[in-house]
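Example record used in the benchmark description.
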Amino acid sequence: MGVEPEFEAIDNNQNVLQKHVEFFDRNNDGVIYPWETFQGFRAIGSGILLSSVAAIFINVGLSGKTRPGKKFPNLLFPINIENIKMAKHGSDSGVYDEHGRFVNSKFEEIFHKYARTHPDALTAKELDEFIKGNREPKDYGGWIGGLSEWKILYYLAKDKDGLLKKDTIRSVYDGSLFEKMAAEKINKKKKHIEK
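Model output (C-alpha cells):
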C-alpha cells in the first residue's frame, strides 16, 4: 500500500487546475473564449501584443482538448473549464495530477532540485534548468507549452531582483496570483489618477 500524495483541498467541487484558469472566465459561465483570455491578460498588466498572442496560443491549443466527443472544432475556440484537466500537457512539473489536483510533494521538489541560489526562489537560469529538466523525449508540444507558460510567468511575476518566489509560483497554481496582480494594477491606476 503506497503513500497518498498530499492534495490541495478546494471548496465547491473545483480542482486546483480549474481554480488556476477560472480568473480568465471573465463572465463566469464556465467557458473561456479568446477575448476573455485577452481581457484576463490585460487585467494582470500584460501588453496588447502579449495578451493577443497568449489568447490565440492558449485557446487554439486547449479548446479541442476540453471539448471531448466533438467531431468538428469550434472556430470560437472555447475552453471548457470543467474539462481543463484533459488539456494538461506533457513535459510539465507534475504539480497538477491527472485529476487537476495540486500535489504538494511535486511542488516542493521544484525547489529541492533547482533552487540553488535562494531556497525559496528561482533565478532565470534555475528556471531554464527546471524547464529543461521536465522535458520528455519528442514531446515538442509539451516543450513549447512548458517553455511559454513559465517564461510568461517569469516575465510578469519576477521580483525586482529577478527572482521568481516560491509563494508567487504557488499562487499561480491556485490562480490567486492573477487576482492579486489585477488588484495591484487597479490600485496603481487609482494612485496615478489621484496624483
